[in-house]
Design brief:
By secondary structure, the chain is an alpha/beta fold. It has eight helices and 14 strands.
Length: about 280
């Protein structure tokens, strides 16, 4: 089982916007988790996803915004301990209460989503996940008795939320095999009955018939969304919704334009901490 690459960037100024700028550039690479504290940012990726030959290109992408860059390896078995000590307080997003397995039980009267954090993206703390969870609740009626596709499922948090909102069939697709293992454990922890996880990418949809899903969720990187959106649209029923995130403000115009070319209607854009959730509807 592989370990993690940690990319650390530090800057000397008090310009806190640098964290968002650096994160935006690093999001173009296969980093799955970011931590920011003070004047440093850490980005993590599976060690198999980034070769040493790519280090220089990554450094060049952000070197104008930081004063020092470091690379290190984080052993996988230390990851849970690191989370327990340094990150992931329980979080409430609307009716959802997101907690880790090592936290106290959730308060009564909320929908508790319990996540075993193992370096998978999706604990609710990142703005993109919060935006998706919030939008899903606003359009909760769309999930009742629905078939839902969750692309780039990560921990499975959105897939779990979809079932809690009433979905009767949820497929999560995730490209990293170790992330799928994490997500499957989270499905068991949350006692889901209508969820399954699939290891793969957009090619996994080749066997899905047209207009099969009632809702499609995609919280991934911009380039993946642009490359794969045609398939999301193909498997989505006419008149139904596509929720996309993992995007920043500079991405909105190109993503919306691409969707309009696929006969999608732009319903709304929500923003938080410089990140976006864009909602589309497939034109009947």
């Amino acid at each position: 089982m592989s370990n993690f690459i940690c990319f650390k960037a530090e800057w000397l100024s008090n310009d806190q916007d640098r964290a968002d700028i650096i994160t935006a550039y690093l999001s173009e690479f296969p980093f799955t988790h970011f931590e920011n504290e003070g004047q440093w940012l850490k980005a993590f990726a599976d060690e198999h996803d980034i070769a040493e030959s790519e280090y220089e290109g990554i450094e060049e992408a952000v070197m104008d915004y930081c004063d020092r860059i470091e690379w290190s390896i984080v052993e996988r078995e230390n990851w849970n301990e690191m989370w327990e000590k340094n990150f992931f307080d329980p979080l409430q997003v609307g009716q959802f209460y997101v907690r880790a397995t090592f936290h106290p039980e959730a308060p009564e009267g909320v929908r508790a989503i319990t996540i075993e954090p193992r370096m998978s993206f999706g604990t609710g703390h990142h703005a993109t996940t919060r935006l998706m969870l919030t939008a899903m609740q606003v359009y909760g009626k769309d999930f009742i008795d629905s078939r839902v596709l969750d692309m780039g499922s990560g921990t499975g948090i959105l897939a779990i939320a979809a079932e809690m909102l009433g979905a009767t069939e949820v497929l999560g697709v995730e490209i990293d095999d170790w992330v799928v293992d994490n997500a499957n454990d989270n499905l068991v922890i949350n006692q889901t009955a209508h969820n399954r996880m699939l290891h793969g990418d957009v090619k996994a949809l080749s066997s899905v018939v047209d207009a099969y899903y009632d809702v499609v969720l995609a919280n991934i990187h911009r380039e993946v969304i642009l490359a794969d959106m045609a398939e999301y649209v193909r498997v989505l029923k006419a008149g139904n919704k596509l929720f996309v995130s993992g995007l920043q403000a500079v991405d909105e115009a190109v993503v919306v334009s691409h969707a309009l070319g696929l006969k999608m209607k732009h319903l709304k854009t929500e923003e938080s901490d410089g990140w976006l959730m864009i909602l589309f509807e497939k034109i009947a």
